[in-house]
Amino acid sequence: MVRPKITHPVPPETPLKTSQLLVGISVAALFCASAQADVFPKETLLKIDKKEAGGGTGTLYGAYAFTRDKALKDQAIKEISWLTLQPGDSIGYHKHITNEDTYIIVSGQGMFKDKDGKDYPVKAGDITIVRKGESHGMVNTGKEPLVFVDVIAEQ
Hints:
Layout: H1 18-34, E1 46-51, E2 59-66, E3 77-85, E4 90-95, E5 100-107, E6 109-113, E7 119-123, E8 127-130, E9 135-140, E10 146-153
Antiparallel strand pairs: 1-2, 2-3, 3-10, 4-9, 5-8, 5-10, 6-7, 6-9
């Protein structure tokens, strides 16, 4: 590997004074102490299965971190879950009035119906989004379970 020549001078590093270092560490510690993250271990997820979800067929199997009725008003993410459709099962074509919905396909394959009623094949790694006021639906067209993460957000 040939390294490019540096054509401009590199300034020498300025050593930090002990007081500057202590202030930096204190600020970092303060930030870390006030920073929060929510963790939802798999074992604690709420198991909720929905028959004929959105007017679809079969059962939509769900494992939810939390449901819409538990989200706070100022939180954009209103619901997040792992969802599974068995082969042939579907989520019916339905409209989102006040929120947006994103599917992140983890495994399996299916057919996603978009806001215009057009069908798109989906597989692991694909992401779908429906915006407020738009409709969508999905069916498992494969021979394996269709597993996806569902994120519902609202402004």
